[in-house]
């Protein structure tokens, strides 16, 4: 590998570490709505930008690190860890698949380089990553958290309401931010050589 290749890899890893730190820091901002467990996960926004900027491989790896750190900092200490399988599904796995947003890296960059906003593509690929994350939470909710469903309610319906609600809430948050930050998204996603 040339020095330029090593240098570029180091930049990607450094950006990933900074994004992970930012995503974790944003976890300390109150983010549950009302009395429900529907949550805004503010760290999804910098993760989406990073995955679109650096691609799927970097996005998956950064999401994995974010999930492991979230498990250590929040899962173990706040009762979010029930057993090994649930912990793996809801933390490393669910957080890493957010990196699937990176599948849109090339199409979004191409659209932006052609003078288009790329908003539709950003929302489409972000929806893919967000949906994947909440799908894993939905599975874990139905399997492991069913006892917390209101009495008489099917645990799968309860999991769908909570995790589907969180998916919708985070997509709405992204939608607002994409339109509000539309002018600077190109600068955030296109890598300058």
From TrEMBL:
Keywords: Membrane, Transmembrane, Transmembrane helix. It comes from the Bacteria. InterPro entries: Thia_Transptr_ThiT. The chain crosses the membrane at residues 12-29, 35-52, 64-82, 88-105, 117-136, 156-181. This is Energy-coupled thiamine transporter ThiT. It comes from Companilactobacillus huachuanensis.
């Amino acid at each position: 590998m040339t020095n330029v290749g090593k240098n570029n890899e180091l930049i990607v890893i450094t950006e990933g570490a900074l994004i992970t730190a930012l995503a974790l820091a944003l976890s300390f901002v109150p983010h549950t709505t009302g009395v429900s467990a529907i949550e805004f996960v503010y760290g999804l926004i910098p993760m989406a930008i990073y995955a679109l900027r650096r691609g799927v491989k970097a996005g998956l790896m950064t999401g994995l690190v974010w999930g492991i750190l979230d498990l250590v900092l929040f899962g173990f200490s706040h009762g979010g860890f029930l057993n090994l399988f649930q912990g793996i599904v809801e933390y490393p796995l669910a957080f890493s698949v957010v990196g699937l947003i990176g599948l849109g890296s090339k199409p979004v960059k191409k659209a932006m380089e052609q003078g288009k906003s790329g908003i539709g593509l950003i929302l489409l690929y972000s929806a893919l990553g967000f949906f994947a994350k909440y799908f894993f939470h939905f599975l874990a909710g139905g399997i492991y958290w069913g006892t917390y469903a209101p009495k008489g309610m099917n645990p799968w319906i309860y999991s769908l309401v909570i995790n589907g609600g969180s998916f919708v809430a985070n997509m709405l948050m992204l939608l607002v931010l994409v339109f509000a930050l539309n002018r600077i998204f190109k600068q955030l996603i296109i890598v300058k050589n």
